[in-house]
């Protein structure tokens, strides 16, 4: 389950938010807060487009054991671009805070809507169709949400559904997911009690796609009835009901919907309905049309690709947040062996020129040089290689990544840190961040 953290204190909540973030976003009222984050309404300073800004204290993340969840959310969101998924525009950070700049869903969450009254079968079907469109897309991209619930389903200004909060997601790669064991199944206990699938409770490993489908079934049941299918004030009793699959359908529910829900809430994951089977189901297909998507929907573009870069590689903010020592995140996510990064406001060509001069002064050889990249080695006498690459982060800021290979007679890190880096000390930019403590 989600690691517990103390809620924000009254003093923290009363501390005024910064008025602007990095000169790019204006902050408005506090929309809500949880154990590890506060969410503000904001605006793009230029376009005035509304955004939601999720603010997280790095120290609170570290002490609360949520670093892995932040990494998961970034890894998941960078893969996803779908009409029914909240879009993450970018990630920003200073020495104290991490900020997710998200698409603003002004309609609120589905939980608050269904809490007032249950939905009609047609309206429930509409939102379930949008949910499955998003979930099926996530699964095709190797992302399993694992915490689908009404509170994580938002509505935009046109009342369309938007899935959010991928902090508990599992992201698979070509290699086996770190969350998976040798049997290829996931074993991490996570999710919200009322929505958790029986196979998670059995602790025998589970398929991420199957548990998402179970949660979708719970969501459809709540939309249609206004209450949970498995509920009890005693959590252990509720878990027992989930494992047994004890569901009671109201008399007024259509037989077609009862049949469909029984397939979604099948306690046996092997026979539980799949996404492919869902979209072919007669009840589901009423009024359904596949989302019209183009290839552009499925690509996460670098900022201003092909614009002000001038041929220089740009570095997506999602990559920066993962490992940038320039933003002092190494204590959160860990550094990289044989590598170091820093930020600079100096022009890339000036950085490369300084490296060339420094290498010559230290009697190292410049083996190769091109735009935004230089390779330095020790010549024939020393087995040492260093590469320095400059990548664009913003119009004014670049990221410099240095990598080295060990030298037999002298440690690689010492050659870089003690002999070359001192020549570049004036280039390093350490953002204080115009953001106050919130």
UniProtKB/TrEMBL annotation:
Residues 310-334 form the NAF domain. It comes from the Eukaryota. Keywords: ATP-binding, Kinase, Manganese, Nucleotide-binding, Serine/threonine-protein kinase, Transferase. One of its GO terms (biological process) is signal transduction. Its EC number is 2.7.11.1. ATP binds at residue 54. Pfam families: NAF, Pkinase. Gene3D superfamilies: Kinase associated domain 1, KA1, Transferase(Phosphotransferase) domain 1. Transmembrane segments: none annotated. GO terms for molecular function: ATP binding; protein serine/threonine kinase activity. Residues 25-284 form the Protein kinase domain. It catalyses: L-threonyl-[protein] + ATP = O-phospho-L-threonyl-[protein] + ADP + H(+); L-seryl-[protein] + ATP = O-phospho-L-seryl-[protein] + ADP + H(+). InterPro entries: Kinase-like_dom_sf, NAF/FISL_domain, NAF_dom, Prot_kinase_dom, Protein_kinase_ATP_BS, Ser/Thr_kinase_AS. Its cofactor is Mn(2+). Belongs to the protein kinase superfamily. CAMK Ser/Thr protein kinase family. SNF1 subfamily. CIPK serine-threonine protein kinases interact with CBL proteins. Binding of a CBL protein to the regulatory NAF domain of CIPK protein lead to the activation of the kinase in a calcium-dependent manner. This is non-specific serine/threonine protein kinase.
């Amino acid at each position: 389950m989600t690691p517990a953290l103390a809620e924000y204190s009254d003093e923290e909540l009363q501390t005024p938010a910064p008025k602007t973030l990095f000169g790019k976003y204006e902050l408005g009222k506090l929309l809500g807060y949880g154990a590890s984050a506060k969410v503000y309404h904001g605006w793009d300073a230029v376009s005035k487009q509304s955004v939601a800004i999720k603010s997280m204290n790095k120290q609170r993340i570290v002490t609360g054991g949520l670093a892995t969840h932040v990494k998961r959310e970034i890894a998941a969101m960078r893969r996803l671009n779908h009409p029914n998924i909240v879009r993450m525009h970018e990630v920003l950070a200073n020495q104290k805070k991490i900020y997710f700049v998200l698409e603003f869903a002004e309609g609120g969450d589905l939980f608050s809507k269904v809490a007032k009254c249950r939905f009609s079968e047609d309206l429930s079907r509409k939102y379930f169709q949008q949910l499955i469109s998003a979930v099926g897309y996530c699964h095709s991209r190797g992302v399993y949400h694992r915490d689908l619930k009404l509170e994580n389903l938002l509505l935009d200004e046109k009342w369309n559904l938007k899935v959010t909060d991928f902090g508990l997601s599992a992201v698979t790669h070509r290699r086996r997911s770190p969350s998976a064991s040798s049997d290829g199944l996931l074993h991490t206990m996570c999710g919200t009690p009322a929505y958790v699938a029986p196979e998670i409770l059995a602790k025998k490993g589970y398929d991420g796609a199957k548990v998402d489908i179970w949660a979708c079934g719970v969501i459809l049941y709540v939309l249609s009835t206004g209450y949970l299918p498995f509920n009890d004030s005693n959590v252990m009793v509720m878990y027992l009901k989930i494992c047994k699959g004890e569901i009671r359908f109201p008399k007024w529910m259509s037989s077609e919907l009862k049949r469909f829900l029984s397939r979604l809430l099948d306690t046996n994951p092997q026979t539980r309905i799949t996404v492919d089977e869902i979209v072919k189901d007669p009840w589901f297909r009423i009024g359904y049309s596949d989302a019209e998507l183009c290839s552009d929907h499925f690509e996460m573009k670098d900022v201003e690709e092909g614009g002000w870069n001038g041929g220089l590689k740009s570095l997506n903010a999602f990559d920066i947040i993962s490992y940038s020592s320039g933003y002092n995140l190494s204590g959160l996510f860990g550094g990289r062996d044989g590598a170091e990064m820093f930020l600079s406001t100096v022009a890339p060509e000036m950085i490369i020129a300084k490296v060339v001069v420094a290498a010559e002064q230290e009697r190292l050889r410049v083996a190769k040089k091109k735009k935004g990249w230089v390779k330095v080695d020790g010549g024939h006498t020393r087995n040492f290689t260093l590469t320095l690459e400059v990548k664009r982060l913003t119009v004014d800021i670049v990221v410099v990544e240095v990598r080295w290979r060990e030298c037999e007679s002298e440690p690689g890190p010492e050659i870089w840190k003690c002999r070359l880096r001192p020549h570049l000390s004036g280039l390093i930019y350490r953002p204080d961040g115009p953001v106050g403590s919130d």
